[in-house]
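Review form for a predicted model. The reviewer records the input and the model, then writes brief findings.
Reviewer: anonymous (R2)
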Amino acid sequence: MPFLLFSQNNNLNWVNTISSQGQNTAYSFSYDSQGFVYSVGSFESTTEFDNRTSSSLIETSSGASDIFLTKYSPSGSLA
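Model under review:
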C-alpha cells in the first residue's frame, strides 16, 4: 500500500509503502504542526512498515488482523 506526501505547491515530498503478505488498509491519515504524518489502519499476516530503510519495522498479526498506528517524520522515515 503506497502513500505519498505532497507539499502545498503539489510537489512530491516522499513516498512510502506498507507492504504485507496479507491485506492492509489505511483508514485515516493526519499530520501535526511539525510535519509528522500519522496513519491508522489494519494489517494481516506479516507486514513491513517503512521499507525504504534497513531499519524498517516488521510486525506479524496475532489473529486474523491487527490494527496499526504509525508516525512518520517530515522526511518520510518511521518515527
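Findings: The chain has a mean pLDDT of 85.
Further findings: The beta strands are 2-6, 12-20, 24-31, 37-43, 46-49, 57-60, 66-72.
Recommendation: see findings above.
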